[in-house]
Amino acid sequence: MSRIRQHVRESRRLATAGVAVSGATLLAATLSPAAHATAGPTRATAVRHAASALLAHASSLGLDSAQATSVRDVIVDKDGSQHVRYDRTYHRLPVLGGDFVVHLNPDGGYRGADRAARAPIALPSTTPGVAAPKAADLAANALRAANPGQRLRQVKAKPQLIVDALHGTPRLAWRTNAVGLDPLGNPVARTVLTDARTGARIDAWDSIETATGDGRSLYSGTVPLETTQSGSSYQLKDPTRGNTYTGDAANKTDLCIFGICISRAPSTVFTDTDNHWGTGATADRSSAAVDAQYGTDETWDYYKNVHGRNGIAGDGKGSYNRVHYGSNYNNAFWDDSCFCMTYGDGDGTTFGPLVALDVAGHEMSHGVTSKTAGLTYSGESGGLNEATSDILGTMVEWYANNPSDPGDYLIGEQIVRSGFGGTALRYMDKPSRDGSSADYWSGSVGNLDVHYSSGVANHFAYLLAEGSGAKTINGVSYNSPTYNGSTVTGIGHDKVGKIWYRALTVYMTSSTNYAGARTATLNAAKDLYGAGSAEYNAVAAAWSAVNVN
Fold this sequence. Notes:
It contains twelve helices and 25 strands. By secondary structure, it is α+β, with helices and mostly antiparallel strands. The radius of gyration is 23 Å and the shape is globular.
């Protein structure tokens, strides 16, 4: 308990100074625009209140003298309510599933908390029985097994000793990030969780989160761009949005993923002499760059103007994009280690360049998830991670209101080609239209690939926005069924985005499953619109319609 008191005192001091708390940088508060204009608790005040709550409620939060906490995120509501998100360590080891959110009243009084896992953490030893090189070998073999028929090159693995509290009774584990190159030189990566006593596999998941003046883009027509003049030319760098920029990867790859650097692709910023970028054709390499930069701009503006979030991490700092990555690379991904977006050109048969607006919104939303709830990328929480990016990426598309790419509930419809065998990557009104995704929850949903288990939440979001049954929206036909035969009335996509974002940033944790997502979104709807409101009741009805009760 003395260590907790010491941490509380230190948290208060550091929060007042506005610097790091226990090694974790205190992120800027995610305030609504109205909250910026009214007097109320500050970020530092919220952290001080939360520090007091940690001391007073250490037992209920599962804290003891062996543990330490660090602030990951802070949200202050318009009415002054405060929500402080923490990570925890046990004897200095990161705890997977140790994250929790402390909720405080406007006066700083403790209201409650949401915890990713509730089992008490008490290990007989933090000395592993399986050596780090053995854990690395197991993960490297798992990466190869996950890519059958491919002769992977330059496979490397980096183990980290942690405490796993997500998978039952807390235990010592190795979290190992394995990376390599496929035969075309494109990156593959997998995270493997191994019991540090026995070497048994606990879990594993893919580590690359996939989706799959003015500029003439490939998909969004001619769009405005904020650029930076440099001498007699211009750089595709936006000083109004945290200096976000777009660079050319020169069809090379890198593997600076999770701190393991095997090779590095360039990100040479695009330049132009007249500040008119691209031709709208793939032959001009800057056309894809226009799409990427535009997608970054619209995603930044959506989060700032709708949710009051200043940048992906909430700290006002811009990310960057790399286009023309790899060889015929059918993928796009967000990478936390570089805080950047990377886009492949596609193979031309299955996919075109993967720089469509909803893909950009999807991938950068992975960054928002990482900086907030940190949903684990496996099981039901992994499906919710992917669904979060589909849902909020779709909201970016609706927000942009671009006549060349109007809002819809199709994912990646602009990038698919005739060889793909469908008109979109995923369909939110009826996810099973892709042949693999789940329309409704069942006990086996968590065993699906996260891009398919996401269907349950995508279907929920569509039903909540537009309702059930057949309809045509912006020229696209939809026909959304319900598990229980009910008729669901939608509340509009704007409200869905606000409810989901608040649930993600205030109530969800790394272990949130579908039942937890129902609770989180109901809490969010209650906060935003009131208990018993039409919006609150619609959230409940939409979850029941996808069999989450």
